[in-house]
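Per your request, structure below.
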């Protein structure tokens, strides 16, 4: 039985490598993206060993880095691929507990959990959301009309507003300031302007934009 499990794991790893190449060559390959979703879901359901070298949090981190590499690369089609952006959003929504902490990291300097083992370190939500906005902006620079990237930012914003009010206010202020500055020097990008104004309205910080329909 152990041999069968190892063979299945090896086959899944090979299939993931193959779909990675497929999405690199054809970013709209929906079957490849869906196969990766099934593999991640199956791996999560079967993961019961915290000491496994390929623990689920490591696998999800690799998946996030892989998609980020594609959507921020100089490859024109990848930056605006709805399949890649939808896949990343699915990963975030499905495995958010393996990506970010529910709040900022503890400041008490205690690196041990209740069981005496070392705590796993995930980025705080504010750090993660700031990083995601930076990725969207980079993809927006790769493709001027990148509404798929900015729609991803909108969905991330919906996830953000479900958090505690104080944290939301801080993150929204940071998002508005960065988006405002980014759009100021890219006035021709109407998609970014419209999404940026959505961010401002959503955060009830419309005054940061002067309350106008443009910047």
């Amino acid at each position: 039985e152990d041999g069968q499990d190892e063979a299945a794991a090896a086959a899944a790893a090979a299939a993931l490598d193959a779909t990675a190449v497929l999405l690199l060559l054809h970013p709209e390959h929906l079957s490849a993206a869906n196969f990766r979703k099934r593999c991640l879901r199956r791996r999560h359901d079967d993961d019961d060993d915290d000491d496994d070298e390929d623990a689920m949090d490591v696998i999800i981190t690799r998946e996030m880095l892989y998609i980020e590499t594609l959507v921020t690369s100089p490859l024109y089609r990848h930056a605006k691929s709805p399949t890649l952006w939808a896949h990343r959003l699915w990963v975030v929504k499905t495995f958010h507990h393996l990506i970010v902490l529910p709040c900022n990291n503890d400041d008490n300097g205690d690196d041990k959990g209740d069981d005496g083992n070392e705590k796993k370190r995930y980025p705080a939500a504010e750090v993660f959301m700031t990083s995601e906005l930076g990725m969207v902006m980079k993809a927006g620079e790769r493709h001027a009309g990148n509404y798929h990237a900015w729609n991803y930012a909108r969905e991330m914003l919906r996830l953000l507003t479900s958090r505690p009010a104080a944290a939301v206010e801080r993150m929204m202020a940071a998002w508005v300031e960065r988006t405002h500055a980014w759009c100021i020097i890219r006035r021709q990008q109407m998609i970014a302007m419209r999404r940026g104004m959505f961010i401002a309205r959503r955060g009830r910080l419309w005054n940061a934009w002067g309350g106008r329909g443009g910047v």
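Confidence is low (pLDDT under 50) at residues 103-119, 205-215.

Regards,
D.
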